[in-house]
Amino acid sequence: MTATINKPARFSGVNSGAKRKVDTQLRRKLGISAYILFVLVPIYWLLNMSFKSNEEILGGLSLWPQNFTLDNYAVIFSDPSWYMGYVNSMTYVSLNVIITLLVALPAAYAFSRYKFTGDKHLFFWLLTNRMAPPAVFLLPFFQLYSSVGLFDTHLAVALAHCLFNVPLAVWILEGFMSGVPREIDETAYIDGYSFHKFFLKIFLPLIRSGIGVTAFFCFMFSWVELLLARTLTSVEAKPIAAIMTRTVGATGIDWGVLAAAGVLTIIPGLLVIWFVRNHVAKGFALGRV
Amino acid sequence: MTKVENNKAWFLVLPVFLLVAFSAVIPLMTVVNYSVQDIFDQHTAYFVGAEWYREMLQDPRLHDSLLRQFIFSGCVLLIEIPLGIAVALMMPTKGRAASLCLILLAIPLLIPWNVVGTIWQVFGRADIGLFGWAINSLGIDYNYAANPMDAWFTVLLMDVWHWTSLVALLCYSGLRAIPEAYYQAARIDRASKWAIFRYIQLPKLKSVLVIGVLLRFMDSFMIYTEPFVLTGGGPGNSTTFLSQTLTKMAVGQFDLGPAAAFSLIYFLIVLLVSWLFFTTISHLDKAK
Counting beta carbons within 10 angstroms of the beta carbon of residue B237, is it exposed (0 to 12), middle (13 to 18) or buried (19 or more)? Predict the structure, then answer.
């Protein structure tokens, strides 16, 4: 922020001011670079390990792979019980995003436009579910989904993740929708639009960045969650993050494959964030800035 | 913006209501049901009333992990909030550099939680991890698997690495919303940097900071996967937090009744603190 303060030199004018400006600029750049380095180094270490053989990993420390190998990735891509984990994770995450958006969009509209009996209580009640520790719901979820025959299906995990994603989605969308002036609604109704037509043709396009950001957040929280996903699946819908634990074998941990699997779980997130990069900051503020 | 009074809006909320009722109310009722019974097997259960609650409230396991949990969440907030603000203030304001910063900062947030644990598990080891190796070669005896202090330090560092970006991104978006005119006025007044931060930036950051504190409190209070992978709750019980104590009790030892009572007490604590935050947020919204 200080950059914008210092930019027009007209006010500071004198030489020493200009020099100080360069100093603070430099210090800020150094600071942010240092922090980003702190963020990236552990990830680099994982990437580094994924290109090494186990002998090399355990043999000693080296800052880059001495004998570059793709064997660890080959193990994952050639074994269906490995790569199906990615397919499973992607499936339930996508299902979750679709379900969440479908139910959250009308609800967020109601919260942002209308007053109705119990609206505040309902909103808070929804938020309490975002606050519920997943560990609390572990056992009941297991029994509930087993009893309705959904255990070990993608749908079970997708529905379970709605527990925290739906409240979040309603919260974010409500923030974005409240930014749209309600005169637009009124004008459309006067022009003879029905609610459905107005909502789909006019309103949704207006908040499309908000929808994108919400989808991103639902993706993110569903993708990173493991406790519920692992409990509700055994074989058919097992997420990749749970499959990773089996690299711990009788002969110790297969570090190389573990690292390769870890690296592969980071990629979908990177792809998704690329699409919403310009809106993500606003989204992190839950549409409330 | 004034809202129209319309009870038909309930129809719009109904799908959410039904979905959340299915995925939250039914399981919660199951928990309540367990918490008042002594269950031997599927067909033998006795009503025991509030006994499990009484037992749990006096259980040292609950006390210890609750204390650890509060210390942990407190440390997390004390470190991550100021650091996040500092990072946000240092970020470039526009152009490619800003987008690049945003994406790089967001990476830790998009990594599955057990992979976060794995990353630090490897990174902190003295034999194969850069971090553990670097600290040990400085002459400091560091081993997160054997020394409770080192374990705490590593878990905290991991959480800072994992979540400070969230606070930073929140603050960054808050800072972008400050009109340039404010800064011009400050420049004319020759306000110091501290004054600009204290009287322009910080007040404008208030609403995003409340969200940041709320999210960080809730999530750090529910933390399970990362310390579980990193330290397994050890050495001893030194990094066993509430969720892990609960999971051990419910799944490991299958003490359904006490675990259910524990769950509800746990949930109520989170709820109480969050309610305080929620009222604060709505007051802030009203003030705007």
Answer: middle
Say if residues A212 and A172 touch (Cβ distance below 8 Å).
no
Rounded Cα distance between B53 and A14, Å, is 71
DSSP for residue B3: P
In this prediction, residue A8 carries a pLDDT of 46
pLDDT in tens, B55-110: 778 888 888 888 999 899 999 999 999 999 999 999 888 778 888 888 888 889 88
Q: What is each CA distance from B175 to B77, B104, B282, in whole angstroms?
A: 20, 19, 21
Number of A–B residue contacts, CB under 8 Å: 295
pTM: 0.84
Cβ-contact A178, A110 below 8 angstroms: no
Q: Which amino acid is it at A10?
A: R
Q: Environment class of residue A124 by beta-carbon count within 10 Å: exposed (0-12), middle (13-18) or buried (19+)?
A: middle
Domains and CATH numbers, chain B: 75-240 (1.10.3720.10)
**C-alpha to C-alpha distance for A223 and B51, rounded to whole angstroms:** 39
Give me the residue from A135, A163, A285 closest to B23, CB to CB: A163
Residue B181 near chain A (CB below 8 Å):
no
Which chain B residues are closer than 8 Å to A244 by Cβ?
Answer: 114-115, 118
* Tally of helices (H runs) and strands (E runs) in chain A: 16, 3
**Contacts of B272 by beta carbon, 8 Å cutoff, 6+ apart:** none
Domain A75-284 fold is MetI-like fold (1.10.3720)
Choose among A91, A92, A47: nearest CA to A72: A47
ipTM for the complex shown: 0.83
Contacts of B90 (CB under 8 A, 6+ apart): A28, A29, A31, A32, A35
A188 within 8 A of A154, measured Cβ to Cβ: no
| Chain A residue with minimum CA distance to B102 | A277
* pLDDT at residue A287, rounded to an integer: 57
Query: For B237-285, how does the pLDDT look when each residue is reduced to its tens digit (9 = 90+)?
Result: 888 888 888 888 777 676 777 888 888 888 888 888 877 876 776 676 6
